Each structure stands twice: as structure tokens, then as C-alpha cells.
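Example 9 (inverse folding). The structure is encoded as follows.
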């Protein structure tokens, strides 16, 4: 019975030291870091998409519409 108690105490001490080691460790990635990365990527992606939309809306689409209209209004001259 004494051996059982000693083994249980040793296992408990080992588990306690492992738990302390894990809690003191600052290794790994937290939830806040991941959430911040996702938020930054969404904001940057939105800015890039809105910039491309403004470029297409003001510069590319009017020119494209004009060229298509000229192509279909071709008189053969």
C-alpha cells in the first residue's frame, strides 16, 4: 500500500511540474494573434478590392464601352 501512495505522489508531482512548465511557457500562438491577422487581411483585401473597383469603374470600363461602341458602329470606310 505504501508503494502505491509513493507512486501516486510522484505522479502527482510530475504532473504538477509539467503543468507549471506549460503555464510558464510563452510558446505558441494565441487566439488574439490569429484574430488580429484575420482582421488585418480582411481590411487590406477590402482596400485592394475597392481600389480595383474604382480603377475599373472610372478608367477601364468607360474606355472599353467606347471601343465596343466604335467597333459595332463600323461603316466600312
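The amino acid assigned to each position is listed next.
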Amino acid at each position: 500500500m505504501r508503494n502505491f501512495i509513493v507512486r501516486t505522489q510522484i505522479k502527482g508531482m510530475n504532473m504538477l511540474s509539467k503543468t507549471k512548465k506549460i503555464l510558464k511557457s510563452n510558446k505558441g500562438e494565441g487566439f488574439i494573434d490569429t484574430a488580429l491577422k484575420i482582421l488585418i487581411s480582411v481590411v487590406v483585401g477590402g482596400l485592394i478590392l475597392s481600389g480595383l473597383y474604382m480603377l475599373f469603374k472610372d478608367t477601364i470600363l468607360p474606355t472599353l464601352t467606347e471601343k465596343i461602341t466604335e467597333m459595332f458602329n463600323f461603316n466600312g470606310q
